[in-house]
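Quick question: who can interpret this fold?

. . .
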Amino acid sequence: MDPDLSASGEGNSQQHIQEDFPSDGNEDGHLFESTEEPEFEFDESGLELAADDDLARENSDGSAFQSGSITPDGLIDEDFEKELGTPSDAEEEDEGEFQDVAQHNILEVVGDDVCGRKVIIFSSCKLPASEKLDHQRLFLYLKHTLDQYVENDYVIVYFHYGLTSKNKPKLSWLLQVYRELDRKYKKNLKALYLVHPTRFIKILWNVFKPFISAKFGRKVMYVNYLHELKEHLHFDQLVVPEPVLQYDAKQVKSNKPPYPYSGDGLDIATRAKQTQQFGVTLNHVRQNYKCVIPPVVEGSVEYLRANALDVEGIFRRSANARVLKEVQKKFNEGLPVDFSTEGDVHIAAVILKTFLRELQEPLLTFDLYQPVVRLHNQDEERQMVEVKRMLREELPEDNYIVLKYILQFLTEIVAHSEENKMTSMNLSIVFGPNLLWPKGQASLSSMGYLNSFTKYLIDHYRDLFES
């Protein structure tokens, strides 16, 4: 990463380097188990020059991180040296006890990116005034949330707009977050998008150099305008706070930046409308391909069944974005796809998840969202009766057939969990957000219910679909 570019936040998104790591599976669970730019009120005079000078001194290895730091006087209203040395410890708490933090919707999980990785959003504009939020509890809530997803590849989108001197955490808190979120959390983090970076971010970058590894630094990408995210994320699925949208619109109008992404998706939809499979409805695919199981679903499942049942971390790992786009384009144009020529079984896994997530309506339909979320209020016996009724009476027949086909395959994955490390719990975290989502914004607590429901479908496949 070019350190000067990184520090200033100028230019387009930084290069993203993907890394793959093996990870272990989790244990099974039960159904519904609680699982204008703001002005900073501190003096930055003199700091920007210091930051630029420091950035100009690059290590011999090319790293953007070097030893040394910048005097933070006036940057944060606290004793920096003292605070950095005294991060506090706290014990984990149950999800129900985090309601005081969760109610602000500072953290949100919004499905997968274009490479099939879970997307977690942190919105600074939703942080209440510091005296109204215990930042230590916010840290515990952050860990509690990440614990549900860190076994899979994931990315974080940080919306910086809205952070002011009234709601910003202390530097000691930021350092605690970096230090205590150890390798468990960092190994599968594939990208950290810093949206609308400011001079404040540049200064923090330099202050934290002694504590941040170059490897982690390569995962950081500065995003100056929201449209730059479209290259990496399904932008229409992002939950972007209204203040961030308004600020971005002002920046775009003022600076008139170029739009770096291509219009291939629209071109494909226009050129090959009848053969489109991604981003349409199941009915569209059936009418044009004369089959209930979409070819992209059947092709990916059958390939995975023959080649990936024993692949560790299948459905957890991401895949090459360029190859994914090429494969999607072939499917959308009605061309044959041979996954065996791609040389990576994870391509087929991500393609299956992407197809489900890009359906115009979730496979389990918008109508079933609220009934599924409410199921946690019922006892175990009643849950089985109600789930059977919903699947057989309220789910459209085509949706039922496709859902059954996919779930049957997922039970085969679970049957080989000793080799692939993918239990029903792991698979539910991967597939839950891809099978069902609301028309509006989903809370983290409801995401837990969706994941638990998906686990229930996998664990009780025979009772639900074969009895």
